[in-house]
Design a protein that fits this description.
Layout lengths: L3 H33 L11 H10 L9 H10 L9 E2 L2 E2 L1 H13 L7 H6 L4 E3 L10 E4 L11 E7 L2 E6 L9 E6 L3 H6 E6 L12
Antiparallel strand pairs: 1-2, 3-8, 4-5, 4-8, 5-6, 6-7
Length: about 210
């Protein structure tokens, strides 16, 4: 009887050790399998559109948040200016601003610069320090309320605005381009800014 007890004890001990090892192996296998399917969430870097227009606006790429706006601009950039034009063969300033508002902000505004300026829902103001992305910028040859508005653009930020203009840029082209509001030329023609009542005017949209 005394000789049998150690054998049984050893058998049970070995069985327990084997069971513990098997369980550990099972746990290790489960962990390894989970690691295979583990998704590593990497921080998304700036998109090509953000990098391109950040360089033009002289801001950090992360500050170019409205991807829908800049994708629209990119699609129309360098389209030539044409009075009354409404397509890629030629586009005028007021149709460009109307089309931009419709496509980017889902908001239909007036067809001409003068009507956009005079509209009841256009909140006009003079202080350029209060400008926000999406605000309309109104101009005429006299830079005065007393004369009809002949040109309109859309403010982007950091003293830059996008518009379709007969004036040639540094590249020698006219049409859709981004200009500097504080330049002597545009300051001389500036009449006022106008803000439309858009609930979600400034959006943070992905590609």
């Amino acid at each position: 009887m005394n000789k049998t007890i150690p054998k049984i004890f050893i058998f049970i001990l070995l069985l327990n050790l084997m069971s513990c090892k098997s369980y550990k192996d099972m746990v290790d296998d489960a962990v390894n399998e989970a690691n295979k399917h583990k998704v590593v969430h990497k921080k998304k870097g700036p998109s090509p559109i953000q990098k391109k227009y950040a360089a033009i606006l002289d801001v950090e790429p992360e500050q170019v948040k409205n991807i829908k706006l800049y994708s629209f601009i990119d699609k129309w950039m360098d389209t030539p200016y044409k009075m009354g034009g409404e397509n890629k063969q030629g586009i005028d300033c007021s149709f460009f601003s109307q089309h931009l508002y419709h496509e980017v902000y889902d908001h239909l505004i007036e067809r001409t610069a003068q009507r956009q300026f005079k509209a009841k829902n256009t909140n006009r103001f003079l202080g350029q320090e209060f400008l926000e992305e999406g605000d309309l910028l109104f101009f005429n040859l006299e830079g005065s309320y007393a004369y009809m508005i002949t040109h309109v653009g859309i403010y982007l930020g950091n003293d830059k605005f996008v518009h379709s203009t007969a004036r040639k840029s540094n590249s020698g082209k006219n049409g859709v381009q981004i200009s500097t509001l504080s330049s002597n030329h545009w300051q001389k023609l500036f009449v006022a800014a106008g803000r439309k009542p858009l609930i979600d005017k400034i959006t943070d949209t992905d590609n």
